[in-house]
Every structure is written in C-alpha cells, then in structure tokens.
Amino acid sequence: MKKYSWIAAAMTVCVWVALAQRPKQVDDNALKSAAKEGDEWLTYGRDYGETHYSPLKQIDVSNVKRLGLAWSWETESPSGGRVEGTPLFSNGILYGSLAWDVLFAVDARTGKMKWRWDPEIPRQHISQICCGPVNRGVALYKGKVYAGLLDGRLVALDQQTGKLVWEVQTLEDPGAIITGAVRVVKGKVIVGNSGAEQAVRGHFSAYDAETGKMAWRFYTVPGDPSKPFEHPEMAMAAKTWTGEWWKMGGGGTPWDAMAYDPDADILYVGTGNGGPWSHVYRSPGGGDNLFLASVVAVKPETGKMVWYFQETPGDDWDFTSVQPMILADMAINGRQRKVLMHAPKNGFFYVLDRITGEFISGDKYAKRVTWAKGLDSKGRPIEAKGNRAALDQAVIISPGPGGAHNWQPMSYSPLTGLVYIPGQESSYTYRLASAFTYNRGTRNMGMQGGLGPRLPNGQTAPPPPEPPAATPAREPEGAETQPQATGGFLVAWDPKTEKERWRLTGAGGLNGGGGTLATAGNLLFHGPVAYNAETGEKLWETDLGGTNVTPISYSLDGKQYVTLFARNYPNNRLFTFVLDGNQPIPPVPAENTAK
Ligand code: CA
Predict the structure, then answer these.
(1) 315 is annotated as an active-site residue
(2) What's the predicted TM-score (pTM) here?
(3) Quick one: which of 8, 132, 518, 581 has the fewest CB in 10 Å?
C-alpha cells in the first residue's frame, strides 16, 4: 500500500514537471489572469482591461538610467506603410505585425526571426483607403496567432511555424479594410472593420477561434428599415436616423478599441465616425445616428447589447470613439466603482460605470475643445453655437479630424491612479462639399478638403479643389476664450477628479508618436523615453532615429525587458532594452530619410 502511494506521488511529480516544462499556452485562464501575472504580454493592452500597465518593477525610477540596448531586429518592413503595431510576448517569443499585414515571430532571447508570413495584400486594393496600410497587432490563443488583414481576411496561423491554418473573409463593402488588432474572448476572435471615410457600414463580429466559423455580427449602424433588421438593436438605432442613409453605409466602423471584463462577462467596443462625415448629407433630417461615435457593451457569446453610450451625437467632425479604452476599479466620491475610461477624438475624458453604462464624469483633457462647451449631467455634449459647417459657412473646429487622441494607446497605473494619454491639440476647417453623390468603394466625405485619394505609393493625394466659400470660415461661439492649439502632449490624468496631474507639451508631436506604457517601477514609457510616472520628470531617453510605436514590457530568464518598434519603413526596427544592455543603437541608413 505504502509502495503504491509512493508511486502515485512520484507520478504526480512527473506530471507536474512535465506540465511545468510544457510551453505555457495562451488560453482563457492565462488571458484572465494576465492582469496579475506580469511576465508576459499576451494581448494588445497586456490584459483584458487594456491597461498597458506592467506589474514588473526590476526597472524602476532609481535604475532606469542604466537601460541599454539588448538587441534590435531589422524588420525589413514593406514600403508604403507605417508600423503601428504593439507586439505580444509569450514563452520567450515576440509576435507582431508590420506594414501590409506581414506577421512575424522573433526569438526574444536573441532577436532572431523565427518565422515571417506575408499575406501578399494586393497593393491596389487599398489605394482609396484613408489611413495607410497599417496593422496594429495580432492575438494569441491556444497555439494560434490571429490577425485581421487589410483585404478583409481574418487569418489563423500556427504559432510554432507561422503556417496558415484557416482564413475567412469578413467584409461586405469594397471600401472597407481592417487595421485594428483582433482580440480573443471565450474562444471567439473579435474583429471590427475600418473605412468610415468611404462611408462603409460599421460592424464587429465574432469568429470561432478553432474553425473560423462566424458566431455573430453586430452592425453599428442600421440598414434599410423596410427590410428585417439583422439584430434587434438596429430597430432602436434606426429611429435616430433620417433620409436614406442605408443607401450609403453610414460609417461607425469599429477599427481599434476593445476591452473585456471577465467577471461581468461584457465586451466593450468603440465605434467610428459618421460616413459621410457631413451630418446633413448622411442624415438630412438630423438625429443622433446611433451607434456612431459610441461605446457599445455586448455579451461576447451572443453579441447582444447590454448598454451603449454615445459620445458624439450626430457626428459632423470625424470624431471617432475607437480610441483605446481602459477598465479599472477605483473609489470615486467614497464609492467603489468598476469604470471604463475613454479619451475619444472629441477631446473629453469619460469615466463610465462599465456594468450599467452610467455616465460618472467627464471633462476636457485637451486644452482647446471648441465644438462643445462641456458635458451635461448625463454626459451628452453641450454643443457650441456655430459648430457645424453649412453650405454658406465653413467652420474652424478644435480638435480636428486627427482628434485630441487617436490610435496611440493610453495606459493606467493603479499605483499612481493616473491615466497617461498621448494626444495632440489641433484645429481644422470643415467646409461642406457643394454637392454630394455617394460612390460605393471610394472616398465619400461630403466635406471639402481633408483627405484626397490614397495613391498606389501609399501617399495621400491632395483633395480636388473647390471654389472658396463666399464668407470666411469662422469659429464657434466661445472659441476665443480658449488656449491656442499647440501640438502634441502627454498628460497624466486623474480620472477620480477629472483633473490633470502633469502635462508635457511639444510642438508637432512628442517622442515621435506611439502609445504609452506604465510600470510598477513607477515609470511611464512613451517611445524610447522614461518618465517618473508620479511627477513627469524625464529620467531616461535615447534616440532611435524616427517615429516610435508603443512599448511593451515582459520578463525573461529573470530580467525585465522593454521592446518597441521605431523608425519608418523600410528601416523599421524592433528594439529591445534591458538594464546594463550594451549594444550600440544601429545608425539610421541614409535612405530612411530620403523616402
Ligand atoms: Ca475617420
């Protein structure tokens, strides 16, 4: 008897050792516990709450000056695109996406490429598309790597080999593309679409991670009300539209932000601007136009809506609400709240109750916000008089279509209680086009100026000229009392008080763009620069030569690393830093600046 229990114990130990040595798999449990486990970076925002916060603290305010390059990898990113991706880290390997949806795996110990997969996107396909051939990242789940592609495919690759396992076409409209990172929730891959400038109809959908079979689709704007609606939420949304919007797409493309609360089992998705931009051409009798520029909360198993919150009713300014959002728990006015925090393009920082969708608070996080005077007690904007373009009147509005915050992820440190928003002050002259005809598959703005067609080389052509308006453009009422737009900023925002703790400003951008990373070492990384997260004091900085993307942090063989993309194509590199790293930063080749 004794002998048998000894054997059983030995067998248990063997199984335990085997399990410990088997590569860790990214499954539901791993994704759920990511918020507490600091070693890996398993999903776009590191955890389901999308905090972009690392609990690692080997690198901290006292030693960050010793940070140096461990290695860098020449990505040979295809020309004509920008790199906006946040890589993932699991089991010693970094996974990610480059321009034109080239996906890769790199050994994080050596910086050597493990595999590379090029979907060979037809370059012509996106010649009309607004935002360049970018891809913000991949998802990992049970041995596969998932990505949405510019040509509308959702693909699953074998995590070990980079070989295609399955692919499925997710788009309906020839003007639509995919640029956002996909996420995996409860065995389903969630993917949105992009292209509201083409006036395509927005939707996000769930596909079975194993088979690629579609489970559900949530449209963000209603279709033809004379036909049965695809899902019940569309009947309610259709009451907020006028005219014949369904003959165009309507917009609302959810091209970036998602977050998931596993306890409440609610998936949150941010939706895009109206398509066409102009409210009068899109919905001539007015209306809020649900679910444009909103946060939509749904059940991940069915896609059934739990609540919605619209941030910019009747959008007229390309004010998307797809900017990355963050879930956190905090005490506000003495009450513990489960909140969703959001800094969309429109310049207001929102704190919502993420269980009910109730508006808790909101205030301007950009200095210059002229389109609205503020938010009412329900969070609805109080629009400034004269803030919408008319045929005989162009208007100058802050922020402009780039938004006070765009795709660059913000981060949240539970240590400081602050949200770190990489944003910009801007303004833009909105001129209504003198006439508007919808053309499926092409730019459909309803506004003059702004974005011309994208050329095959990836550059944007100037818009077709129109005769100048009879009266000069003017600003809305109250604009004269606001500070001038001054370019890029990095603000540390206290969501409990809706006040800034500190703010850094830089003309034309700060640290070359990209999102932020907060760490338990009380650091804030923005590009290859580290700040004291509490005070904003700059503690470490290096020049990587060109634009920078969003840093991540992870632990490998007992050491904490910080990894980020930098430099434009074709010399885009993945840089990895560690304490006492001693590799020299490779010089920027001459052609990097020439192109
Ligand atoms: Ca847009």
Answers:
(1) no
(2) 0.93
(3) 8
